């Protein structure tokens, strides 16, 4: 009975129905899609930032991250590797030794990160190998070969085949220096990184820098990157405390970036809320107009014996039908867009420079299709719309029948 | 006879739908002299309202002409008609005559304000009419605070306040009891007499018809009678 | 006549007070939201630009030709440049500072980092870059022996150095020798410009030249103007007067195109927001005006019957919607200005997101900006929306004959 009556009223007040439905459709679609796009693009930015070099999970000596120094290294690499190899969740582990050294070419001397890596394993945990633009990537047998960032090579005025020297210090704080031969040049797109990083094969530099069984970082690649935080917790427990190590997931090592993305989302939603504020106002206004046009009718309904409660239910039912008629297709539309742009990411080649300035090496931004997010947004929109309708609704149901009937 | 209104071969047909058309007035020709007090009567649906609307330039005829004084109003455009309605014609409808947002006084002044009359002139005219129509107590009330008869009196005051040459009243007594109807008619006669306004009333109320000096009877859109009572041709 | 129209419109609005209030509130609230957003976002953008202009690019920067592609110690501007009439007495210039830059390696006992050495005349740089506001720890002083250094906040953090600590700076001098120098950390600054904060080491320019084996000259002359709008004008003047085969003269937006792009993106974004919000708000006004015209058809019919012209009725309806719009504008602009003024004064404190904001080159306290064009844009948009919203109802009124209007209920 109610449903029938509600439906008739919706049809008879076409302007209100149409405006309400369309606005909600539009608002829901925008909310769903913006949410999906923000989430997707942020993940992409973080992922590329994580995967270029820092990687998902780092193990360092206690306190190394806060205060890097040769007294806070991983001093028993073999023991650590034994533990890691026994974990089924760990796909791969590789060591790095990072130090800062002066690179000296015929023209220039520049300070830079000089990192010793295990080339084959490193290729699997970071994008170092993929980022090659000239020459060759390192191999496990290399001697005196260096793999340079493009901007650093430019500043040093060297290219593949050129000679360099490095001056640095070893894990025992001893002086270390040798000649290097440029084997390859890489470009990750992260300006800072490309401008200040050089890589060498670990086995080559081990004796020079006294790296015997030590490393500054051990990078762990989990089987499932989504569970990296759990794995970090697990490893923290399983690593023998006498090794003096700490485990950090990318969420911790990249907390600045993660926070930056949160800030971006907050401002994004803040902006949307201004739009939603006015949309909800319009819905309130149209509900008010529709109900005012029917005040007489409502008075008559009351006069012939309907209770306040029944009329309230009737009007709320109408509102709910309209809301769902807008929110459901809106959610589907937004979801469809989210799906499409997940499969076909936006290309922002024109903005690449701007992203790089914030150390984000991305040129395409995908959306993220997530059913829970879409449902969450639809529920939020439904509740907000019903709230917007509540004020005029309460006002009219509170009128006394005679007042309502006299209304013209 | 000094003709004021000349209606010649007037037709009005309503296109109700594509196939059906209702002829509301058929070949109506009439002459109304200055200062006339005419009543148009006839059964319901005979075309009285249609005729008054055409005379009041609220609608345009399908065929035929209407002239008001020297002006052929049936030929004018909408923009040219508003000043004619404003300055030369006063209208009283059957019900809901007044502008709801304005008080009785403001309703009466409305047309004078449109005409750009001075504040003083407006005030004295309102005072004069309020006295005649016995509505002094009602001037500051809003239409929804007035009874049907009170509204009708205010409507008459508004209709004549701008000193029109022609007063059109469409069933003005329909919503009134006989005492009030008599008083309203007294008033109209008085205005007709004092201010020389030509009065044209439509009605099927015998009370009104009996007061007519000039009686016009319509039936099915045609004029079936058009004569002066008591031989007092003005 | 105007008084009459005004009177009628005002009465009509007053008669449906709830509705009129709701529309006014809607326009006011959306305008408030927009103003707040624009003010804060522009504040952020301008803060980023300001940080960069002050800490690095100036409004204009002069470099030796080729220095930017190849920043070597051989490509310096001569000290004599500073004596050029146009640079000394130009009324457009508010402040100037010279910088002598080079890369090096900064080491503590535990760690080493790449640094950007910036030799500056401290007094000038303090004024020019507004360093007093940026000081995070310590003092702005190079010490009586000139061996003090001021570090960027990010750099100090990475090296874990604190005030008073000794640090070793190494770099290759002009003669290709690698020199080292012990400096003492006297101050730490937070410029808001991340590349600077992560890399910069300020030291005394004389000390720096000596360290790098250079007797005179500098790498960059940064100029800040009284009025940034004159930047292009001054650039032209300088290009005319100075020998541009030896000197490169670049505006901040040429040095940091991404910042300018960011500002333009923000402008477009604000415009789209305005458009979207006021289109929706217009929809609200339209609904109210349509209903209010339709339910007054009889009233308009009477008015027409007694001689009111359509133009007058149009003027009245238009005035009604404009009054609603203006009411909303006054409400929104008033509350918006009040809110923004508060944030202009006190700033929006986002310390919780410090790390994230710094990644964007922003400070943790964002000071809002108020620009007159927020209000003109909004006013135009509101008036357009209100005008557009009565077109349809008025058209319906115009097309009908008076008698039809009178008889419709
Ligand atoms: N707008 C209209 N559309 C169609 N037909 C109409 C319209 N107005 C009037 N008519 C028809 O024209 C004829 C004359 O109507 P009119 O209103 O003039 O009669 P009336 O004499 O005033 O009747 P009443 O005494 O009931 O008021 C009627 O048949 C009516 O149905
Ligand atoms: Mg009639």
UniProtKB/TrEMBL annotation, chain A:
This is ABC transporter permease. It is found in: Cell membrane. The chain crosses the membrane at residues 266-291, 312-341, 378-396. GO terms for cellular component: plasma membrane protein complex. It comes from Candidatus Desulfatifera sulfidica. Belongs to the ABC-4 integral membrane protein family. LolC/E subfamily. Residues 273-399 form the ABC3 transporter permease C-terminal domain. It comes from the Bacteria. The keyword Metal-binding does not apply.
TrEMBL record, chain B:
GO terms for molecular function: ATP binding; ATP hydrolysis activity; transmembrane transporter activity. PROSITE patterns: ABC_TRANSPORTER_1, ABC_TRANSPORTER_2. One of its GO terms (cellular component) is plasma membrane. Keywords: ATP-binding, Nucleotide-binding, Transport. CDD domains: ABC_MJ0796_LolCDE_FtsE. The keyword Transmembrane does not apply. Residues 5-233 form the ABC transporter domain. It comes from the Bacteria. Belongs to the ABC transporter superfamily. Macrolide exporter (TC 3.A.1.122) family. This is ABC transporter ATP-binding protein. It comes from Candidatus Desulfatifera sulfidica.
From TrEMBL, chain C:
Its main location: membrane. GO terms for biological process: lipoprotein localization to outer membrane. It is a multi-pass membrane protein. Keywords: Cell membrane, Membrane, Transmembrane, Transmembrane helix. Residues 275-399 form the ABC3 transporter permease C-terminal domain. It is found in: Cell membrane. Residues 23-238 form the MacB-like periplasmic core domain. InterPro entries: ABC3_permease_C, Lipoprotein-release_system, MacB_PCD. It comes from the Bacteria. Pfam families: FtsX (PF02687), MacB_PCD (PF12704). One of its GO terms (cellular component) is plasma membrane protein complex. The chain crosses the membrane at residues 21-41, 275-294, 323-344, 374-394. Belongs to the ABC-4 integral membrane protein family. LolC/E subfamily. This is ABC transporter permease. It comes from Candidatus Desulfatifera sulfidica.
């Amino acid at each position: 009975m109610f449903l029938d009556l509600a439906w008739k009223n919706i049809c008879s007040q076409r302007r209100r129905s149409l405006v309400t439905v369309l606005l909600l459709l539009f608002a829901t679609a925008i909310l769903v899609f913006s949410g999906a796009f923000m989430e997707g693009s942020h993940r992409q930015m973080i992922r590329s930032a994580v995967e270029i070099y820092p990687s998902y999970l780092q193990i360092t000596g206690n306190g190394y991250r806060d205060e890097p120094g040769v007294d806070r290294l991983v001093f028993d690499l073999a023991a650590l590797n034994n533990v890691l190899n026994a974990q089924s969740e760990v796909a791969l582990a590789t060591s790095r030794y990072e130090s800062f050294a002066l690179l000296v070419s015929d023209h220039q001397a520049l300070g830079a990160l000089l990192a010793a890596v295990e080339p084959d394993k490193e290729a699997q945990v970071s994008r170092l190998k993929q980022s090659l633009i000239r020459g060759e990537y390192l191999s496990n047998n290399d001697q005196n070969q260096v793999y340079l960032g493009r901007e650093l090579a430019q500043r040093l005025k060297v290219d593949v085949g050129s000679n360099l020297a490095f001056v640095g210090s070893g894990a025992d704080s001893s002086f270390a220096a040798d000649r290097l031969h440029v084997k390859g040049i890489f470009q990750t797109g992260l300006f800072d990184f490309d401008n200040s990083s050089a890589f060498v094969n670990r086995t080559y530099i081990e004796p020079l820098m006294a790296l015997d069984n030590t490393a500054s970082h051990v990078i762990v690649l989990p089987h499932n990157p989504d569970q990296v935080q759990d794995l970090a917790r697990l490893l923290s427990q399983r690593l023998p405390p006498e090794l003096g190590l700490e485990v950090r997931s990318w969420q911790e090592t990249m907390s600045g970036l993660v926070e930056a993305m949160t800030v971006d989302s907050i401002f994004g939603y803040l902006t949307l809320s201004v739009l939603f504020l006015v949309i909800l106002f319009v819905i309130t206004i149209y509900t008010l107009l529709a109900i005012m046009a029917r005040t007489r009718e409502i008075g008559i309904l009351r006069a012939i014996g309907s209770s306040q409660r029944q009329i309230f239910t009737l009007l709320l039912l109408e509102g709910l039908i309209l809301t769902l008629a807008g929110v459901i297709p809106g959610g589907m539309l937004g979801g469809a867009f989210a799906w499409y742009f997940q499969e076909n990411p936006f290309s922002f080649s024109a903005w690449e420079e701007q992203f790089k300035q914030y150390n984000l090496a991305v040129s395409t931004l995908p959306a993220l299709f997530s059913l829970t997010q879409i449902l969450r947004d639809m529920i939020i929109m439904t509740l907000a719309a019903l709230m917007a309708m509540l004020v005029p609704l309460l006002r009219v149901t509170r009128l006394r029948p005679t007042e309502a009937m006299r209304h013209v | 006879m000094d003709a004021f209104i000349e209606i010649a071969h007037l037709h009005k047909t309503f296109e109700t739908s594509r196939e059906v058309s209702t002829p509301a007035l058929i070949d109506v020709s009439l002459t109304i002299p200055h200062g006339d007090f005419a009543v148009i009567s006839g059964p319901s649906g005979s075309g009285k309202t249609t005729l008054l609307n055409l005379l009041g330039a609220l609608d345009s005829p399908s065929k035929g002409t209407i002239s008001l004084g020297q002006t052929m109003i049936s030929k004018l455009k909408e923009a040219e008609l508003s000043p004619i309605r404003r300055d030369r014609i006063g209208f009283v409808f059957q019900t809901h005559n007044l502008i709801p947002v304005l008080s009785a006084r403001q309703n009466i002044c409305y047309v004078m304000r449109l005409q750009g009359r001075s504040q003083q002139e407006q005030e004295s005219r309102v005072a004069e009419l309020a006295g005649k129509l016995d509505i002094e107590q009602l001037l500051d009330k809003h239409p929804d605070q007035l009874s049907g008869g009170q509204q009708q009196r205010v409507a008459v005051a508004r209709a004549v306040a701008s000193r029109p040459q022609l007063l059109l009243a469409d069933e003005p007594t329909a919503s009134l009891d006989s005492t009030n109807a008599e008083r309203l008619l007294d008033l109209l006669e008085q205005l007709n007499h004092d201010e020389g306004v030509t009065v044209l009333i439509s009605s099927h109320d015998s009370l009104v018809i009996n007061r007519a000096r000039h009686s016009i009877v319509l039936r099915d859109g045609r004029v079936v009678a058009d004569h002066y009572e008591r031989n007092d041709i003005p | 006549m105007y008084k009459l129209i005004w009177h009628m419109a005002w009465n009509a609005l007053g008669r449906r007070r709830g509705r009129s209030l709701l529309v006014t509130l809607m326009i006011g609230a959306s305008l408030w939201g927009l103003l707040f957003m624009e003010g804060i976002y522009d504040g952020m953008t301008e803060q980023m630009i300001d940080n960069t202009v002050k800490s690095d690019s100036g409004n204009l920067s002069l470099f030796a030709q080729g220095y930017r592609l190849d920043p070597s110690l051989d490509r310096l501007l001569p000290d004599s440049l500073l004596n050029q009439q146009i640079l000394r007495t130009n009324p457009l210039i508010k402040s100037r500072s010279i910088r002598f830059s080079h890369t090096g390696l900064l080491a503590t006992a535990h760690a080493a980092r790449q640094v950007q050495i910036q030799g500056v005349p401290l007094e000038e740089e303090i004024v020019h870059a507004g360093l007093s506001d940026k000081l995070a720890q310590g003092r702005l002083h190079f010490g009586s022996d000139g061996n003090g250094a001021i570090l960027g906040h990010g750099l100090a953090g990475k090296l874990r150095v604190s005030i008073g600590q000794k640090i070793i700076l190494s770099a290759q001098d002009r003669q290709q020798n690698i020199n080292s120098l012990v400096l003492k950390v006297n101050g730490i600054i937070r410029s808001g410009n991340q590349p600077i904060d992560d890399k910069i080491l300020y030291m005394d320019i004389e000390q720096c030249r000596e360290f790098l084996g250079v007797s005179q000259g500098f790498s960059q002359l940064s100029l800040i103007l009284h009025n940034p709008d004159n930047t292009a004008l001054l650039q032209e003047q300088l290009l005319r007067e100075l020998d541009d085969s030896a000197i490169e003269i670049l505006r901040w937006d040429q040095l940091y195109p991404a910042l300018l792009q960011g500002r333009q993106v923000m402008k477009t974004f604000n415009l789209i927001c305005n458009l979207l919000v006021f289109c929706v708000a217009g929809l609200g006004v339209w609904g109210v005006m349509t209903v209010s015209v339709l339910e007054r058809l009889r009233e308009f019919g009477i008015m027409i019957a007694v001689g009111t012209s359509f133009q007058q009725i149009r003027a009245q309806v238009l005035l009604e919607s404009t009054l609603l719009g203006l009411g909303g504008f006054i409400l929104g602009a008033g509350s918006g200005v009040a809110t923004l003024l508060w944030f202009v004064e006190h700033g929006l404190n986002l310390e919780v997101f410090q790390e994230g904001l710094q990644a964007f080159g922003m400070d943790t306290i964002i000071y809002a900006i108020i620009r007159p064009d927020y209000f003109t844009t909004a006013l135009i948009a509101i008036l357009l929306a209100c005008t557009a919203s009565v077109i349809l109802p008025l058209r319906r009124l115009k097309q009908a004959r008076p008698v039809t209007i009178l008889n419709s209920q």
